[in-house]
Amino acid sequence: xxxxxxxxxADLIRCRSVTPDDGGAIPLLDALLSDxxxxxxxVDRGGICNLFARWGAGANGRTFGFNGHTDVVPVGNIDDWxxxxxxxxxxxxxxxxxxxxxxxxxxxxxxxxxxxFVQDTPPNGSIVLxxxxxxxxxATDGTVALxxxxxxxxxxxxxxxxxxxxxxxxxxxxxxxxxxxxxxVFFTATGIQGHSAYPHRxxxxxxxxxxxxxQLVNLExxxxxxxxxxxxxxxxxxxTGNAATNVIPASCKATVNIRFNDAHHSDDLAALLAGIAAExxxxxxxxxxxxxxxxxxxxxxxxxxxxxxISKAVLxxxxxxxQLSTSGGTSDARxxxxxxxxxxxxxxxxxxxxxxxxxxxxxxxxxxKIYTRILQDYFV
Length: 380
Fold this sequence. Notes:
Blueprint (H helix, E strand, L loop, with lengths): L4 H9 L11 H11 L3 E4 L7 E6 L6 E8 L20 E2 L2 E3 L7 H17 L4 E8 L10 H10 L6 E4 L11 E3 L1 E2 L1 E10 L3 E2 L9 H13 L14 E8 L7 E2 L2 E10 L5 H19 L2 E10 L2 E2 L4 H14 L4 E3 L7 H4 L5 E3 L13 E3 H19 L1
């Protein structure tokens, strides 16, 4: 019997799986896949629920993998929602709920496609579903935990599709063959506190930080590469915590976020910013320190077998050839790319993380068809 991806999406939305809570989403999928003949293993870590499911022994033929997450971001002010964010109500062909777009519909579509495919056309090979409950937060105990477990247990995937929403406006218009790197740099300028009427007796960290920020916002990191737009640097906060108008504070903080392409590595960018900070420090006498948090390095899966496979399936089902893109933020593909070639393709993402997040039910059905065709073309 065919799995209804729309019903499965609704069942998942009704699970209140705001990171790190699971809300029953992973057990629901575990039971569904086990009943369909998949060998399932819970790979929970750090209080996060994760699921690894394989159909086929993996000894013969190739293994195609799907990756996705069932956790969602908080709903925000529930009074701003016109519908219950965990109700999965359908109005005029639109299903409403947190995770409707990002990305319970994607998980439902690839789970339904995989189950139907192995029952209708058992492939000469294996299908793996790696599903996590930790993508929307720090992502340290989700897909990373699954990949660690796979390495420890000699489990391999040859090619992987991450079911994140990828199309800006129209179903099928874009897939992601890579992602920019992301890093955040926290600066602290430490001077000497003093009276604002006697600035010569103080060392003003605000002036030093302002000079640093001025240099950073005017810094051209690159002009883009073959598959990436130019890297960007944004100042996201500038704080002193100083409520007094006649006091030069002792310290000042600023934070910048950098989205960088494959012309850079985070270490090189950190060294560049440290050098600029050192120049400001030498000129002002204000000590400037920095801390760096790297969310992921840039990566790309070169256009070829995997992107061609997905393009062909998308074109067949939508009449559109998807653009190969590296835009957007980070995703768990940044972890999978260390294991095997990975591409992202999913729904239109216009409402993800928004109030009244929603998805046309027709898109869920269409996505299941696309994923089914990908499996057919890959194995048959």
